[in-house]
Amino acid sequence: MMRPFQTVELRAIAQKIQVGWLPQKPSPGMVLHLMLHSDLHVTVVYPENKDPTPRQLQTAFAPLLSDLARKFLAPRLLQLADEHGFARPSLVRIGAPRTRWASRSSSGAISLNYLLLFLPEALAAHILIHELCHTVEMNHGPRFYALLRANDPHAMAHDAAVKSAVRDYIPFWQK
Questions:
Q1: Cα(91)–Cα(110) distance, rounded to whole angstroms?
Q2: How far is CA 116 from the centre of its chain?
Q3: What angle do CA 9, 14, 20 make, to 5 degrees?
Q4: Is residue 44 classed as helix, strand or coil in its secondary structure?
């Protein structure tokens, strides 16, 4: 039996989702799902005869995490753009790409992975600033890194920490 977790820590926004577990008598077509009590309080409802799998949990939590990223990370991106004098993105998208924390398109849109919610605030902010730097320099050349260091004095340390962030901060059921 998978050991149920009681909280999901969202370090980037200094919040925790409280998680309850409710096994139920299975019925035809029953699938694991979340019962939302609020943005930060959920119950995982699942068939009592079948342990929840990481993939089922990932699928069940995806809409909630997307909503929270839209509610908290998108405004944070705009706040950082204003604070650092960057142009605001033409559009902010929230998703769950498998291999990227974020990206910026040539049209000016910035896409954010909702898994950023799990990172410490400083690392999430670093990634957001990184993408904002692409509003000035689209490549990763010397001018880009000079701009990044000017806007994030700890950029090199943050870059190093981001490399192990999946291992260090992302819950097992989101990997």
A1: 6
A2: 3
A3: 35
A4: strand
Token pair of 26 as six digits: 């299975």
Distances in whole angstroms, Cα of residue 31 to Cα of each of 45, 47, 92, 97, 121: 8, 7, 31, 24, 34
- Beta strand 91-95 with 41-47 is unpaired
Q: Which of 84, 138, 85, 83 is nearest to 110 (CA)?
A: 138
Q: Which of 117, 126, 125, 115 is nearest to 13 (CA)?
A: 117
pLDDT in tens, the chain (175 residues): 566 899 999 999 999 999 999 999 999 989 999 999 999 999 999 999 999 999 999 999 999 999 999 999 999 999 999 999 999 999 999 999 989 999 999 999 999 999 999 999 999 999 999 999 999 999 999 999 999 999 999 999 999 999 999 999 999 999 8
